[in-house]
Amino acid sequence: MKLQHGGSHHRALAEINITPFVDVVLVLLIIFMITAPLLQQGMAVQLPKAQAPELERTPQDILLTIDNTGHIFVGDSRAPIPMEELSGKLAAVYQNKEKKDLLIKADQQLLYGKVVEVMSIAHNAGVERIGMVTQPEDKK
């Protein structure tokens, strides 16, 4: 005599549990929502004040930032670029660009010679027009 066991109550479930996936996606969404505004602000520098008309900027404009310690940053990158590698980096960025404009955002405490050196390297790397980002003067 064979004993019959109570049916197939140990079969595998064919449903996928998506709760852990939803949890991970929500955590990533929160992280990106918090960090996105921080990435758009760029590097903090004290810009010199000047009376100049405001330029029309486009998202395609390349921004080169030089902080008060002389570190150089291209675009939104937080990694400083050594002066020796700047020419190659700019040449690669502008190789396939039709509009070869560069905006330089330099700290007001920076030595003039450092800014001129960066401008010379940019020009030799293929940049055709260079603009300086300044802060509007206070009206008295």
Task: Describe the model.
With 140 residues, this protein is α/β, with parallel strands linked by helices. It has helices at 19-40, 83-94, 112-124; strands at residues 49-50, 62-66, 72-74, 101-106, 129-132, 135-136. The protein has a 4-stranded mixed sheet, covered by helices on one side. Strands 1-6 form a two-stranded parallel ribbon. Helix 2 packs across helix 3. The longest helix has 22 residues, at 19-40. It starts with 18 loop residues before the first helix and ends with a strand.
How far apart are the first and last residues' alpha carbons, in Å?
106 Å
| CATH class wording of the domain at 49-136 | Alpha Beta
In CATH terms, what is the fold-level topology of the domain at 49-136?
Nucleotidyltransferase, domain 5
Tell me roughly what share of residues is in helical segments.
25-40%
Structural class based on helices, strands and sheet pairing:
alpha/beta
Short recap of the structure:
The protein has 3 helices and 6 strands, in the order αβββαβαββ. It is an alpha/beta fold and 140 residues long. The protein has a domain of 88 residues: Nucleotidyltransferase, domain 5, CATH 3.30.420.270.
Topology of this structure?
Layout lengths: L18 H22 L8 E2 L11 E5 L5 E3 L8 H12 L6 E6 L5 H13 L4 E4 L2 E2 L4
Parallel strand pairs: 1-6, 2-4, 4-5
Antiparallel strand pairs: 2-3
